[in-house]
Amino acid sequence: MGEKKIKGRKRHFLVDTLGLLLLAVVHSARLQDRDGAELVFAEAAARYPSLRRIGADQGSRGDLAEAVRQSYDFELEIVLRPADARGFVLLPRRWVVERSIAWLNRWRRFAKDFEHLTESSEAWLYLASVHHLLKRLTPDRSIPQPYATAA
Question: What's the pTM?
Fold first, then answer.
Protein backbone atom coordinates (compact mmCIF):
# COMPACT_ATOMS: atom_id res chain seq x y z
CA MET A 1 0.00 0.00 0.00
CA GLY A 2 2.71 2.55 0.94
CA GLU A 3 5.42 1.37 -1.48
CA LYS A 4 5.02 4.05 -4.13
CA LYS A 5 7.59 4.65 -6.85
CA ILE A 6 8.95 7.93 -5.51
CA LYS A 7 12.52 8.99 -6.20
CA GLY A 8 14.64 10.58 -3.54
CA ARG A 9 15.55 10.20 0.09
CA LYS A 10 14.05 11.01 3.45
CA ARG A 11 16.12 11.96 6.47
CA HIS A 12 15.06 11.44 10.07
CA PHE A 13 16.97 13.04 12.94
CA LEU A 14 17.27 12.51 16.65
CA VAL A 15 18.81 15.52 18.38
CA ASP A 16 19.48 16.39 22.01
CA THR A 17 17.96 19.39 23.79
CA LEU A 18 20.70 21.66 22.40
CA GLY A 19 19.99 20.56 18.84
CA LEU A 20 23.16 18.49 18.38
CA LEU A 21 22.73 15.45 16.17
CA LEU A 22 22.58 12.13 18.01
CA LEU A 23 21.21 9.91 15.28
CA ALA A 24 20.41 10.19 11.58
CA VAL A 25 18.53 7.66 9.48
CA VAL A 26 18.35 8.07 5.71
CA HIS A 27 16.08 5.86 3.63
CA SER A 28 14.29 5.75 0.32
CA ALA A 29 11.39 8.15 -0.15
CA ARG A 30 9.21 5.14 -0.90
CA LEU A 31 9.04 4.36 2.81
CA GLN A 32 6.38 6.23 4.74
CA ASP A 33 7.41 8.62 7.51
CA ARG A 34 6.01 6.36 10.21
CA ASP A 35 8.13 3.44 9.01
CA GLY A 36 11.19 5.68 8.95
CA ALA A 37 10.41 6.89 12.45
CA GLU A 38 10.22 3.27 13.59
CA LEU A 39 13.78 2.80 12.27
CA VAL A 40 14.90 5.81 14.32
CA PHE A 41 13.26 4.52 17.49
CA ALA A 42 14.79 1.06 17.09
CA GLU A 43 18.28 2.50 16.55
CA ALA A 44 17.85 4.98 19.42
CA ALA A 45 16.86 2.20 21.81
CA ALA A 46 19.95 0.21 20.83
CA ARG A 47 22.43 3.13 20.93
CA TYR A 48 21.09 5.13 23.86
CA PRO A 49 19.69 2.79 26.53
CA SER A 50 19.47 5.65 29.06
CA LEU A 51 17.10 7.64 26.81
CA ARG A 52 13.75 8.12 28.53
CA ARG A 53 11.74 10.72 26.62
CA ILE A 54 11.52 11.65 22.93
CA GLY A 55 9.56 14.54 21.46
CA ALA A 56 7.92 14.01 18.08
CA ASP A 57 5.58 15.83 15.72
CA GLN A 58 1.97 14.99 14.91
CA GLY A 59 2.97 12.38 12.32
CA SER A 60 3.96 10.04 15.16
CA ARG A 61 0.48 9.90 16.72
CA GLY A 62 -1.77 6.87 16.92
CA ASP A 63 -0.47 3.39 16.24
CA LEU A 64 3.18 4.41 16.11
CA ALA A 65 3.10 6.13 19.50
CA GLU A 66 1.45 3.09 21.06
CA ALA A 67 3.93 0.71 19.40
CA VAL A 68 6.84 2.79 20.73
CA ARG A 69 5.42 2.69 24.25
CA GLN A 70 5.08 -1.09 24.09
CA SER A 71 8.31 -1.97 22.28
CA TYR A 72 10.87 0.43 23.76
CA ASP A 73 11.74 1.76 27.17
CA PHE A 74 11.04 5.45 26.48
CA GLU A 75 8.04 7.74 26.39
CA LEU A 76 7.01 9.47 23.18
CA GLU A 77 5.79 13.07 23.67
CA ILE A 78 3.76 14.31 20.74
CA VAL A 79 3.99 18.08 20.18
CA LEU A 80 0.51 19.04 18.98
CA ARG A 81 -0.53 22.18 17.19
CA PRO A 82 -3.36 23.99 19.02
CA ALA A 83 -6.75 23.17 17.45
CA ASP A 84 -7.87 26.82 17.30
CA ALA A 85 -4.60 28.17 15.85
CA ARG A 86 -4.47 29.87 12.47
CA GLY A 87 -1.30 30.61 10.52
CA PHE A 88 2.17 30.12 11.97
CA VAL A 89 2.38 28.89 15.55
CA LEU A 90 5.65 28.41 17.42
CA LEU A 91 5.47 24.94 18.93
CA PRO A 92 7.48 24.24 22.10
CA ARG A 93 10.79 22.37 21.57
CA ARG A 94 9.97 21.71 17.90
CA TRP A 95 12.19 24.61 16.80
CA VAL A 96 15.24 22.75 18.18
CA VAL A 97 15.00 20.11 15.45
CA GLU A 98 14.15 22.66 12.77
CA ARG A 99 17.19 24.72 13.74
CA SER A 100 19.39 21.60 13.59
CA ILE A 101 18.13 20.86 10.08
CA ALA A 102 18.92 24.44 9.07
CA TRP A 103 22.47 24.08 10.44
CA LEU A 104 23.01 20.93 8.42
CA ASN A 105 21.46 22.43 5.28
CA ARG A 106 24.19 25.08 5.24
CA TRP A 107 26.41 22.47 3.63
CA ARG A 108 26.14 22.79 -0.12
CA ARG A 109 26.41 19.02 -0.42
CA PHE A 110 22.89 18.64 1.03
CA ALA A 111 21.29 20.94 -1.56
CA LYS A 112 20.88 17.90 -3.81
CA ASP A 113 21.10 14.19 -3.28
CA PHE A 114 24.55 13.42 -4.68
CA GLU A 115 25.06 10.08 -2.91
CA HIS A 116 24.22 6.69 -4.37
CA LEU A 117 24.01 4.89 -1.04
CA THR A 118 21.95 5.86 1.99
CA GLU A 119 24.93 4.92 4.18
CA SER A 120 27.05 7.62 2.51
CA SER A 121 24.27 10.16 3.02
CA GLU A 122 24.20 9.29 6.72
CA ALA A 123 27.99 9.52 6.94
CA TRP A 124 27.94 13.02 5.41
CA LEU A 125 25.27 14.08 7.90
CA TYR A 126 27.45 12.95 10.80
CA LEU A 127 30.46 14.68 9.26
CA ALA A 128 28.51 17.93 8.90
CA SER A 129 27.37 17.59 12.50
CA VAL A 130 30.93 17.12 13.74
CA HIS A 131 32.02 20.12 11.66
CA HIS A 132 29.25 22.22 13.19
CA LEU A 133 30.26 21.16 16.69
CA LEU A 134 33.92 21.98 16.02
CA LYS A 135 32.89 25.37 14.67
CA ARG A 136 31.02 26.07 17.90
CA LEU A 137 34.03 25.01 19.97
CA THR A 138 36.49 27.21 18.03
CA PRO A 139 35.10 30.73 17.74
CA ASP A 140 38.29 31.98 16.06
CA ARG A 141 37.44 29.94 12.94
CA SER A 142 40.95 28.47 12.78
CA ILE A 143 39.61 25.21 11.33
CA PRO A 144 39.39 25.30 7.51
CA GLN A 145 35.82 25.02 6.22
CA PRO A 146 36.07 23.47 2.76
CA TYR A 147 32.46 22.29 2.40
CA ALA A 148 30.54 25.04 4.15
CA THR A 149 28.89 27.85 2.24
CA ALA A 150 29.91 31.44 2.94
CA ALA A 151 27.72 33.08 5.55
Answer: 0.72
